[in-house]
Amino acid sequence: MLARLVALVLAVFGLTFTPLAAHAATPLRVATWNLEHLSEDGARGCKPRTDADYALLRAYADRLDADVVAFEEVESIKAAARVFDPAKYQLFIEARPPGDPFPCRGLEGRTLTRQAVGFAIRKGLAVVRAPDVTDLQLGDPNLRGGVDVTVRAPGHAPLRLLAVHLKSGCFSGDKGDACQTLMRQIPILERWIDARAAEGLRFVVLGDFNRRLARPGDWVWTEIDDAQPANADLALAEGSATPRCDPRYGEFIDHIVLDARASRDLLGFEELTYAAGERGSDHCPVVARLR
């Protein structure tokens, strides 16, 4: 009622009134997407691609319309630029050099290119990059580190983000060699989380965890979500949602993990699935919207 009265008075004097809500910042779209062996050249690596395949991926990146995308399994900045338009995005990738090449299963004569993590961040957002979290590699050049950035979008508080791609093969439980490796990575990840939780900025850890964190009693989730410090009381952006990307899989392994402060800013979660006959990657991108 008061707003209407103010608008009427201003109108008499030829002025305008804009409600406060109109000045609210648009939601920040933060996503993660494993691009399945994305090489610079589709004739190389473990995922053969044509120019049309790269064009399809770029079309989905445009549809995703994210402000920040953590990407995984990308060979280089040049490879990332085939999906994320450099005119729109700033591109960052871990500094780790390529590890030892090894054969691609079922693809005679082809070898694996570097599987790196990084970020595509919309131009216009201020970015400060911290040193990569190389301890996640455990001294193994074929394991991925983490890329650590802080972004500031107009109208938003700063947000610190860590992109990760953890050891594959330990999706649940704790048995096997892959689980032994993952068990060594988790305390390193927890130290980063606890350090950030004690600081003044909200934060997000996102990427391919290769782990079904939403499964009740999951030991990885229990380890990192201990609320010590208080802002290490974490939340999964997907909540109770389940993936639609591939009918064979009923639980997410790609996650957007929010600290206590960022979780209060969560407005929604989406999964962008591929149309029939279009499959750019064996993972679909997921995105969280933050106020």
List the helices and strands and how they pair.
Layout (H helix, E strand, L loop, with lengths): L1 H11 L15 E11 L12 H14 L3 E7 L2 H5 L7 E5 L22 E7 L3 E4 L17 E6 L6 E7 L11 H21 L4 E7 L10 H6 L10 E2 L17 E5 L1 H5 L1 E6 L14 E5 L1
Architecture overview:
This protein is an alpha+beta fold. The protein has a single domain (2-290), classed as Deoxyribonuclease I, Chain A, CATH 3.60.10.10. The chain contains six helices and twelve strands. The strands form two sheets. A six-stranded mixed beta sheet has the order 3-4-2-1-12-11. The radius of gyration is 21 Å and the shape is globular.
Strand line-up in the sheet with most strands? 3-4-2-1-12-11
Beta fraction? 15-25%
Structural Rg: 21 Å
Distance between the termini: 27 Å
Total count of helical runs of at least 4 residues: 6
Q: How many E-type strands? A: 12
User: Mind summarizing the main beta sheet?
Assistant: 6 strands, mixed
What is the CATH topology classification name? Answer: Deoxyribonuclease I, Chain A
Could you estimate the helical fraction of the residues in percent? 10-25%
The parts where pLDDT drops under 50 for at least 5 residues are 1-23
CATH superfamily: Endonuclease/exonuclease/phosphatase
Q: Any idea what the CATH architecture is?
A: 4-Layer Sandwich
CATH class: Alpha Beta
How does the overall form come out from the CA principal axes? globular
Q: Write the element-wise H/E pattern from the N-terminal end onward.
A: HEHEHEEEEEHEHEEHEE
